């Protein structure tokens, strides 16, 4: 089945940063690499100001700042970008008059001499520097090492000059960025110079750890390159190379063949005029664990775990480099309690060196000049002050008085390097390690383990706002309405009211008033307070009562005609009885003008001191009235599709927006000023019940009351939907207080029979409620049988097992009870947590509470530092016991354990096989059975399937016992268990070698779809047809079963998936039996959604859809991609091609080779088809349609409609076969236009689309906007 992939939360990791004068002025900018985008910040008014984000169709590996300055210092920095797909881009930034920053692409290309894709996890190295030309201009270069034993030198000026030859506006673009004279002198002369040069490291440099380019030498065109490496004996040295960038093309071509890196002293056979020359070992036998090199104007720092070594620039190469020199100084770091590696360093403006270690500790080193009587030398002195930061640093950059500390594992911080004061610049939840789903009626909550070490904990991720609970009152039923004014709260029940007094200064206190002048014998509809008259106005079902002090009397009273609606705002009180509307201005002498209507009032709304809206029964009209000098005038009117049930007006930008809830569950959205009989409005189905809206005024959003309460958040393109902490909210009110920054709300949950007093925090579409455990949570599992969470905490020596109740996950803090901690043995690590019924039938996981045989299975493995793979493991089963007191938590009691040889990884039950479980041990799947006599598990059958089995998924199918095994090297396997003989066999497997990180299985009526993410940022789906029933013949069964798993969908996500689960972030899951609204929102959803988390802190949703829905969305993806600027030269089509080790890169992708040999060209083209994106839509790109200008939307809609027509005209057999065999990203509408003659009309297409609930042709912008809005609400 096809899929649509949506990003619910973008990655927030920072993978690197650089500083420079990117805007061409004296203002320094810091550029952050945030994987799929780059962010710019500058120092302003003693803080860091965010200038903008630039999303890219790439996953960036490196960023560098390249200076282009002439001899007078005039110029700017440009940014060098290098992606994981080995793409190179150079971009510049230009600030417009309005302050907006524009990105300009100066170069885009690949590494020409790299013919194949390297592994993402390899130790790529990168460094940038400059060389001086004969005219004293500084030309930047970049040295890249993406191969073991070799490196590439990238000449940025030559690259820009070469790239500009293919652009008509190149001269104008360069002229807008650089001075004209500089452009003519530098870029014009570089046109015939190659911009990629390849060199080889010396054969003795076995493990190259770090490279860095030194300061430009006095000799023109020469660049020093320092290399930190270890040799074959494990000793660490620093060598120096010289790169001559003044060579001509002819010289370089003549010398390229002279490369003999396998000769032990290769530098001696190079000609003297070679481009690359190894001078020799600059410093031998540095610290064994040295890992950093840093160049300063005075020399070179070599930084290790214990020592910091400084090599003065006055040092010269000698034939005996092992002899100590007075120009080399080594001092030790302060001793640390544990082994901590330095990860990054930066030079401070006061000539100090700031070194950060992995745990956040940082040390400052200072250069000081000492005189020894003969001459002066530079020495390294360490400051005695050692401080730490609450992050895991990876990169550093200095920006004025600030130092930015980047981290891919934790928050990115700003720090004042003089004082050490710090704060959060980019909030990052950390990598996602595990994920579990808790089902609450029609809604799901996703609980993810995020963060590393002290930053670790649990994150409740869901489309629901967080409510900070102040007071909760239980055992209350039938609250119909809540009215609040001042310190008086009136709770309306069927037939009567209860009056309470509320204090909210320090803490919330509520006291019921038994003796009160308010009417308690009738239902209260509204309560208002007039500060001018110092009186309360209570509207009940029988009239209007005025309360002053301890006295109250009715000004308007009618026991016959019941009052149905009332509201007060801005001093204007309006209430209605049938067709009569009463209007009272509380700030003026009491008057009661009335309004007689033709139809009965269905709802009313006051939104200003002289304006109100009325909804009518029968006519389904909404009327806008204004009051002038006591006279009511009708100012506007429009007709809805159903009777209006509730209304809200929200300020948004310069135009107030009117939201109307209809009796049929739809919501109407339009601008208030557009109300007229001919006005157009947007209408969306939200619920299958009348839509009751409540205005969350201070948050500029609306709460939809009901069984599944939703919150509507207005946006520029419409509105977004999210949920709230609890279900079945039937009443709500606001407690206004001048002392509180955030107003407090009262919610009544009908299902939970509780009144909740609290404050709304983090009102956004997707919210994360983080619970800190100050440790890495490696595994988390929600077990609905007991409503508990079981998680493992990673400690230095061993793991701990911790349990917490389900309701605690929504609390602001979780108290850790030592009685609920289970200490594992030393070096024992938890690998899985699974619920199990001992000896159960395994027909499927029981939904109800199990009997006394229900246990929790916890698998562990013993990990030692000197072992790559564990040799021994065990799994234990725990029963769940209730504490002695009802307030105590559930506790785990160990009932038994079983030792296992090998590295235990995962576990699942064996479907339809009584008492059996399957364990993933190394690359094997083992079947264990429960022996009730001995109360232990016994091994039965073992089958080797791969290298390391990372997950086992049981498939519950009647009459069959099947398991899917995911392997970290051999993709996935479809296994079948013979429940009669006990045999375990492979019936289907994926023929491709893919390193699976995690996976799930989506089951439909005809087949199983195995969805997984691999270790190269890709998403794949392979399928296996559901086996025939046992009544079919054996021959037919074997023919259908024994085959390879076919790839149905593939897609490059651009981020590393670490965990996947079937679930949903949406406020209401798209597949549920209680509230069927999401199926109406997105037609064509054919299976449960899949949620995933990544190593860089992103969360996303994968939604299975039908072929027709996929074609519709794909047409808009292709059309929107055509009008979306490709920032940096990175294109959407290339970005979504799957990434695989060894696929063609560099010259092997050059189209000029295709013309020389047609046969080889066909082979190469067929090989490239393996990597094309297939049967997956990019929802993030499709949703950009909503932000396009109206004329562009119209053009995109026309292109998408033509695309759909041509696709249907090209179908020869079935739509599914057409989608499998066609590259829709390169499907040309111009070359296939002749096919339209085969389709005389669009009735056939519309018939198919109407059956699937899709918009029919011809498409309109309004229909497309509505459809894409609904797409947004599914994630």
TrEMBL record:
Official protein name in the record: Putative damage-specific DNA binding protein
Lineage: Eukaryota, Discoba, Euglenozoa, Kinetoplastea, Metakinetoplastina
Annotated coiled-coil segments of the chain: none
One cellular-component annotation, GO: nucleus
Compartments it resides in: Nucleus
PANTHER family hit by this protein: DNA REPAIR/RNA PROCESSING CPSF FAMILY
Natural source organism: Trypanosoma theileri
Keyword Phosphoprotein: no
Domain called RSE1/DDB1/CPSF1 first beta-propeller: residue spans: 17-425
Limits of the RSE1/DDB1/CPSF1 second beta-propeller domain: 487-733
Main location: nucleus
Domain RSE1/DDB1/CPSF1 C-terminal, chain residue ranges per copy: 821-1186
Keywords: Nucleus
Any matching Pfam family: CPSF_A
GO molecular function, one term: nucleic acid binding
């Amino acid at each position: 089945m096809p899929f649509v992939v949506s990003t619910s939360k973008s990655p927030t990791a920072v993978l690197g940063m650089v500083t420079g004068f990117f805007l061409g002025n004296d203002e320094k900018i810091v550029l952050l690499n945030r994987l799929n985008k780059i962010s710019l910040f500058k120092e302003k008014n003693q803080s860091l100001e965010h200038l903008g984000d630039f999303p890219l169709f790439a996953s960036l590996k490196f960023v560098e700042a390249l200076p282009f300055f002439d001899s007078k210092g005039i110029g700017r920095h440009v940014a060098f970008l290098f992606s994981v797909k080995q793409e190179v881009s150079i971009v510049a930034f230009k600030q417009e008059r309005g302050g907006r920053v524009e990105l300009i692409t100066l170069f885009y290309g690949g590494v020409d001499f790299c013919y194949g894709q390297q592994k993402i996890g390899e130790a790529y190295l990168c460094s940038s520097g400059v060389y001086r030309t004969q005219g004293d201009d500084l030309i930047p270069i970049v040295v890249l090492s993406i191969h073991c034993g070799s490196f590439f030198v990238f000449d940025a000026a030559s690259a820009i000059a070469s790239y500009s030859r293919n652009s008509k506006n190149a001269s104008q673009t360069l002229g807008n960025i650089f001075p004209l004279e500089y452009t003519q002198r530098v870029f014009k002369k570089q046109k015939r110079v190659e911009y990629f040069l390849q060199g080889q490291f010396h054969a003795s440099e076995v493990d190259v750890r770090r490279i860095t380019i030194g300061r430009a030498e006095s000799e023109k065109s020469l660049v020093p390159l320092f290399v930190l490496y270890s040799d074959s004996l494990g000793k660490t040295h620093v060598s120096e190379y010289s790169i001559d960038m003044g060579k001509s093309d002819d010289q370089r071509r003549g010398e390229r063949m002279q490369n003999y890196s396998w000769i032990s002293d290769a530098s001696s056979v190079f000609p003297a005029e070679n481009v690359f020359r190894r001078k020799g070992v600059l410093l031998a036998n540095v610290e064994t664990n040295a890992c950093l090199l840093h160049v300063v104007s005075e020399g070179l720092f070599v930084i290790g775990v214990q020592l910091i070594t400084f090599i003065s620039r006055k040092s010269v190469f000698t034939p005996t480099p092992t002899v100590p020199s007075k120009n080399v100084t080594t001092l030790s770091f302060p001793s640390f309690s544990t082994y901590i590696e330095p990860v990054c360093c930066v030079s401070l403006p006061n000539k100090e060196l700031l070194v950060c270690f992995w745990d956040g500790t940082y040390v400052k080193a200072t250069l000081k000049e000492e005189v020894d009587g003969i001459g002066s030398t530079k020495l390294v002195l360490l400051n005695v002050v050692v401080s730490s930061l609450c992050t895991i640093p990876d990169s550093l950059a200095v920006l004025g008085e600030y130092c930015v500390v980047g981290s891919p594992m934790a928050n990115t911080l700003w720090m004042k390097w003089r004082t050490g004061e710090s704060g959060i610049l980019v909030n990052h939840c950390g990598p996602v390690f595990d994920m579990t789903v808790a089902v609450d009626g029609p809604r799901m909550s996703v609980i993810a383990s995020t963060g590393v070490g002290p930053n670790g904990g649990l994150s409740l991720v869901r489309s629901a706002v967080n409510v900070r609970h102040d007071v909760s009152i239980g055992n209350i039923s039938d609250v119909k309405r809540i009215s609040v004014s001042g310190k008086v709260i009136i709770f309306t029940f069927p037939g009567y009211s209860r009056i309470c007094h509320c204090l909210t200064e320090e803490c919330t206190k509520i006291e019921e008033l038994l003796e009160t002048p308010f009417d308690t014998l009738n239902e209260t509809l509204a309560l208002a307070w007039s500060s001018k008259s110092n009186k309360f106005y209570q509207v009940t079902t029988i009239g209007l009562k005025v309360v002053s002090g301890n006295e109250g009397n009715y000004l308007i009273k009618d026991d016959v005609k019941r009052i149905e609606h009332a509201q007060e705002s801005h001093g204007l009180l309006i209430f209605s009885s049938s067709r009569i509307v009463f209007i009272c201005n509380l700030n003026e002498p009491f008057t009661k003008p009335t309004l007689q209507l033709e139809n009965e009032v269905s709802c009313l709304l006051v939104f200003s001191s002289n304006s109100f809206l009325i909804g009518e029964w029968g006519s389904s009209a909404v009327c806008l009235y204004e009051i002038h000098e006591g006279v009511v005038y009708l100012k506007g009117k429009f007709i809805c599709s159903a009777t209006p049930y509730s209304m809200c007006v929200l300020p948004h930008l310069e135009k107030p927006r009117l939201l109307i809830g209809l009796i049929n569950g739809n919501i109407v959205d339009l601008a208030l000023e557009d109300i007229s009989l001919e006005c157009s409005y947007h209408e969306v189905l939200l619920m299958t019940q009348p839509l009751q809206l409540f205005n969350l005024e201070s948050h500029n959003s609306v709460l939809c009351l009901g069984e599944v309460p939703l919150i509507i958040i207005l946006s520029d393109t419409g509105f977004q939907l999210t949920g709230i902490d609890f279900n079945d909210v039937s009443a709500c009110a606001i407690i206004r207080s001048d002392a509180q920054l955030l107003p407090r709300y009262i919610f009544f949950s009908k299902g939970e029979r509780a009144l909740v007093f609290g404050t709304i925090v983090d009102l956004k579409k997707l919210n994360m409620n983080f619970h800190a455990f100050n440790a890495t949570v490696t595994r988390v599992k929600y077990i609905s049988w007991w409503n508990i969470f079981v998680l493992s905490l990673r400690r230095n020596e061993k793991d701990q097992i911790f349990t917490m109740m389900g309701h605690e996950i929504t609390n602001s803090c979780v108290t850790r009870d030592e009685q609920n901690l289970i200490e594992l043995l030393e070096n024992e690590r938890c690998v899985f947590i699974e619920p199990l019924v001992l000896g159960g039938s395994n027909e499927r996981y029981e939904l109800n509470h199990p009997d006394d045989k229900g246990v929790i299975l916890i698998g562990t493995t013993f990990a030692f530092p000197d072992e790559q793979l564990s040799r021994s493991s065990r799994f234990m089963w725990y029963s769940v016991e209730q504490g002695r007191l009802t307030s105590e938590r559930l506790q785990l009691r160990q009932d038994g354990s079983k030792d296992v040889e090998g590295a235990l990884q995962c576990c699942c039950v064996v479907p339809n096989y009584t008492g059996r479980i399957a364990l993933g041990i190394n690359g094997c799947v083992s079947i264990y059975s429960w022996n009730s006599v001995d109360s232990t598990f016994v091994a039965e059958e073992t089958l080797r399937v791969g290298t390391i089995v990372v997950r086992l998924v049981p498939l519950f199918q009647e009459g069959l016992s099947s398991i899917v095994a995911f392997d970290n090297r051999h993709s996935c396997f479809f296994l079948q268990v013979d429940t009669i003989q006990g045999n375990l066999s492979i019936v289907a497997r994926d023929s491709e070698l893919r390193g699976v990180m995690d996976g799930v299985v989506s089951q439909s009526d005809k087949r199983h779809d195995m969805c997984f993410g691999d270790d190269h940022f890709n998403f794949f789906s392979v399928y296996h047809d559901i086996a025939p029933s046992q009544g079919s013949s054996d021959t037919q069964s074997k023919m259908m079963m024994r085959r390879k798993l076919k790839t149905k969908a593939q897609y490059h996500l651009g981020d590393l998936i670490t965990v996947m689960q079937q679930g949903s972030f949406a406020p209401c899951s798209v597949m549920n039996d209680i509230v069927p609204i999401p199926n109406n929102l997105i037609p064509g959803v054919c299976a449960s959604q899949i949620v995933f988390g990544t190593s860089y802190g992103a969360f996303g949703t994968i939604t299975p859809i039908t072929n027709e829905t996929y074609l519709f969305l794909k047409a808009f993806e292709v059309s929107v991609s055509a009008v979306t600027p490709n920032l940096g030269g990175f294109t959407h089509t290339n970005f979504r091609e799957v990434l695989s080790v060894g696929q063609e890169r560099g010259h092997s992708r050059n189209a000029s080779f295709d013309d020389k040999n047609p046969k080889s060209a066909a082979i190469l083209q067929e090989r490239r088809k393996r990597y094309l994106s297939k049967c997956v839509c990019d929802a993030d790109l499709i949703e950009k349609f909503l932000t396009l200008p109206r004329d562009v939307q119209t053009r995109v809609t026309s292109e998408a409609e033509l695309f759909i027509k041509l696709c249907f005209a090209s179908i020869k057999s079935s739509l599914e076969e057409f989608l499998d065999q066609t590259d829709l990203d390169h499907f040309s509408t111009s070359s296939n236009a002749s096919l339209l003659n085969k389709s005389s009309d669009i009735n056939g297409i519309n018939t198919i689309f109407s059956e699937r609930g899709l918009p029919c042709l011809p498409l309109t912008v309004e229909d497309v906007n509505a459809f894409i809005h609904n797409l947004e609400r599914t994630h």
